[in-house]
Each structure stands twice: as C-alpha cells, then as structure tokens.
Specification:
2 domains
Length: 166
C-alpha cells in the first residue's frame, strides 16, 4: 500500500492501536504489530487463549473499529494485521491445542481477512488441511513454487499424511 496521505491518528478509529504500539502511520502499525507478533512466535509464547497479550488487544481494536472511518491505507493494513493474527491462531490451534474446530474457525477468518493478491499461500493450504480436504490441499500445494513456502507446504503435507494434524 503506498498512499502517503497523512493520517490524523487522534481522530482515527484505530487511535488506541496506534497508541499501544507507538505507531505513527498505518504501515508503522503493521511493522510494530509484526515485531511484537514475531517475538511471541519465536519464543513459542503466541497463544490465542491469553487475552492480555498486546497482539490480542490490537486484534480486538482492529476487528471492532468502525471501518467507514478508516483511510484506504488503514483498511489495507487492518486486513493484513487481522489476517496475520488468524494465520498464527491456526498454528496455535493445531500444534499447541490440537483443536480442529478452533483451527477451522481461524482458517476461515484468516482467508476472509487475507488482503487480495497477498502472496501467502500457506493459509489456504492450512484451511484445506484442517478441514480434511486432502485432494484440494494437494492441488493447491502444486501451485506453491516459491521458497520458503514450497518447503513449508511439502513439510505440512508430509506431516498431514503421516500423522494428521490432530
């Protein structure tokens, strides 16, 4: 997203998120969110059952924001952050909690929020796998040709075929 139109953060429906992340613009909101998110992912502390985590507070703010009051950049980065949250929630549901029902809900939401033309292909692959749609997953996997997603897709498919995800 590239519009450099100045956002009045104090009047934005996302004001609280800007303040919590000390972000100055929509792209910065995404950058600061990803920094916090990656710390949790790398430390294996990302957990959708911990509502006090900052990333969950940001997700709640973004999900409940009045969309009509957002700029085009805010709308785009809002979707990107929400997609990211739900994408990671799928992983948490699968590998931490082994909760197929939650993984299915999160996968559906992740696809709803995934911005149009977003390069990530793993979200849809996970959607097929958590819904036990192996044929669709195999077809989708064949179209994943760039790294590191290609290797990730192969690993996911192997794991699913050998052990299942749940």
């Amino acid at each position: 997203m590239g519009s450099k139109k100045k956002i009045n953060i104090k009047k934005s429906p996302l004001k609280e998120a800007y303040i919590l992340l000390d972000a100055k613009d929509p792209g910065g909101l995404d950058t600061k969110y990803r920094e916090k998110d990656q710390i949790l992912m790398k430390s294996v502390s990302w957990d959708y059952k911990s509502p006090t985590l900052l990333i969950h507070k940001i997700k709640d703010i973004l999900e409940h924001a009045e969309i009509s009051g957002l700029s085009a950049d805010e709308k785009y980065w809002r979707l990107h952050i929400l997609w990211s949250w739900y994408h990671h929630a799928i992983s948490c549901a699968v590998w931490r909690y082994h909760d197929q029902a939650k993984a299915q809900v999160f996968a559906k939401q992740a696809l709803i929020y995934q911005p149009e033309n977003h390069p990530n292909k793993i979200t849809r692959l996970l959607y097929f796998l958590v819904h036990d749609k192996l044929a669709e997953a195999e077809t989708w996997q064949k179209g994943i040709t760039t790294e590191p997603e290609k290797t990730t897709a192969i690993r996911l498919m192997e794991e699913y075929k050998i052990n299942g995800l749940f």
